[in-house]
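INSTRUCTION: Work out how this chain folds

Fields: amino acid sequence; protein backbone structure tokens

Chain under study, with its fold:
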Amino acid sequence: MAQITQQENTLQFSGNLLITNISETVNQLQTLRLESPLTLDFSKVNEVDTVAVSLILEIQRQLHHQHTEASAVSVIGVPDNLRSLMQLYGVDGFLLN
């Protein structure tokens, strides 16, 4: 299972971001306050699948829905397997600034 820890405007993800546990992760995410500028830190994530890319896009969508003038979400600490998925789906240039 993945855990999300919030420190100010940074969400730190740890554990595994997989389709099998995304429901719990999304439920946990909905209890957090998203403020711009927002940073997503994946440096403590072990395993990922395509749902991790979808999660990042959903967080960005939620932030812009709540704050129309919000800046882009910063994504840091991206493990190689998540970076590969971003490249595969062609969103690496959009998500990795």
